[in-house]
Amino acid sequence: MNLSIRKRLLLLLLLAIMMAWLVAAVRSYFSTREEVEQLFDAQLAQSARALLTLTTHELHEQLAYLAQQNQPDKANEQITLLEHKYEQQIAFQIWLGTERLVVRSANAPRLPMTRFVNAFETRYIDGHKWRVFALWDDLQATQVQVGEEYTRRDQISNDIALHTLMIILVILPILAGLIWISVGNALAPLVKIARDVGKREFDNLQPISTQGVPEEARPLVAALNGLFDRLAIAFDNIRRFTGDAAHELRTPLAALKTHAQVAYRSPTLAEARTAIGAAITGADRASHIVEQMLTLARLDPESQVIKFEEVDLGQLTEEQTAELGSLALEKNIDLSLQCNAQHLVRGKAALLSILSRNLIENAVNCTPVGGRIEIQVTEQPGYALLLVADSGPGIPPEQREKVFERFYRGCKTDNKGTGLGLSIVKRIIELHQASIELDRSEYGGLLVRVRLPTTDNIASYNASREAEAS
Q1: Of 65, 85, 309, 465, whose CB is crowded by the most CB atoms within 10 A?
Q2: Quick one: pLDDT at residue 460?
Q3: Which of 136, 94, 128 is CA-nearest to residue 112?
Q4: Closest to 307 (Cα-Cα) out of 353, 342, 351
Q5: Cα dihedral sign for 11, 13, 16, 18?
Q6: In what side-by-side order are the strands of the sheet with 435-440?
């Protein structure tokens, strides 16, 4: 069952309050009973002293008078008093010495209630539990014993304790209502945010205002605004990708159609074959453009899940150089590779293969016939260095940042490029936290310098990237 935050807070707070109330109630109940017991004991002692003070002199005079009248037994009287609701039903006895009971209350037994003096005692009398206290006068001639049954004590103690607890119990529903209203007011900004987001159109990616948003909800709003920013970038990329694709594919598709029409209308087989060959070349170029665009499109989602591994940059570069050697031979380009050791880097082999291939292929496409391309793989502290130098036209300093933009062609020597190669290289460089620099080579063309981090604790590095992504 999915409860709302409001209901969850209400239940949790009420549960916490109930538990605290229960602990406080138990403690308050027993504490109240203890205090009432102490009060009752004090009243017992006070009653004994009052009786002893008020009756000792009069009692001796009455006993002397009755002795002269030969009626000594008439002193043993019972006294009955009116009671208040919370008044203690104190029973008392007045003894001459320890043997003669001269006065007692109606609820007092005839036998002594206690044998202890100046001390409280709990004992059973006639099957009932009593609390008793005894006190002598200064001459040790008269003793007052007072007591009361625990039944009455317990009733009064329970009434007082429960009355206190009932007040707290009655407050609980009121407290629940106040909590419900307070939590609702506290969550009102979140409800407003949810309402505003729910009313938005799909293309409204403006950030949510943080005005009036509680401090606890600011991370959520910040995360939503960050998501909106990423979505805006993604939508812009999609729109740009779609527009660029339409623009770049329009020319080769139009050329394909033209060559097909020429071949269809050609009067001779040779002319038709020439047109069909041109159409095949145009199809290859269009296919290459689509392949490069798909590669670039796949790099963004991979950035969140890529796991690095140990890659030998020298061996990988050697493989790509060998594959592109035939293109260099067609243009009579002197293509050389200098790599005399193993250079392990932290990365993804498939992506680094694309990186090195695009750099070498770009150099081959931009280098004129009979030119020269030199590739080196060396190492610096903490980095492996990949250098690609050619004797092509190079790139002016003011254009070196632009060549990383999609569909921007930095050289005009060859028409085989798509303008996406360096864009792909730039994205792979970002994913590997590497760096790339463009400079002028010693052969007058372009020098590309790529620094890739060497291997360290790859497992811990991947774990930290996954934690950041989550």
Answers
A1: 465
A2: 60
A3: 94
A4: 351
A5: negative
A6: 334-338, 372-380, 383-390, 446-453, 435-440
Contacts of 393 (CB under 8 A, 6+ apart): 366, 411, 412, 413, 445
- What is the fold, at CATH topology level, of the domain defined by 5-161? Beta-Lactamase (3.30.450)
Q: How far is CA 360 from the centre of its chain?
A: 47
Contact, 406 vs 419, CB < 8 A? yes
**What residues in the chain have per-residue pLDDT under 70?**
1-3, 55-88, 237, 240-241, 243-249, 251, 285, 288-289, 292-293, 295-306, 406-420, 456-470
Angle, in degrees to the nearest 10, between helices 269-302 and 421-431: 20
Axis-axis angle for helices 269-302, 349-366 (nearest 10): 140
Spatial neighbors of 222 by CB under 8 A, at least 6 apart, are: 210
The predicted pLDDT at position 416 comes to 55
Q: What's the topology of domain 207-302?
A: Helix Hairpins (1.10.287)
In angstroms, the CA 59 to CA 55 distance is 6
The Cα–Cα gap between 466 and 14 comes to 40
> What does the pLDDT read at residue 1?
56
Instruction: Write down the pLDDT at residue 79.
Output: 44
Q: What is the pLDDT of residue 69?
A: 53
pTM of this structure: 0.47
Q: What is the number of alpha carbons within 13 Å of residue 278 lying toward its C-beta?
A: 17
Assess contact for 373 and 397: CB atoms under 8 A. no
CA distances from 59 to 52, 66, 73, 97 (A): 10, 10, 13, 13
Top-tier CATH class for 305-469 = alpha beta
Give CA separation, 458 vs 301, 317, 464, in Å. 21, 21, 10
* Residue 422 neighbours by CB under 8 Å, 6+ apart: 358, 362, 403, 404, 410
Listed residue (432, 196, 411) closest to 308, CA to CA:
432
pLDDT value, residue 266: 86
Question: Residue 212: phi, psi to the nearest 5?
Answer: 80, 5
Only one residue has tokens 């043997």, namely: 99
Interatomic CA distance for residues 73 and 66, integer angstroms: 8
Residue with tokens 């406080």: 24
Supply the angle between the helices 5-68 and 150-199 in degrees, to the nearest 10. 170
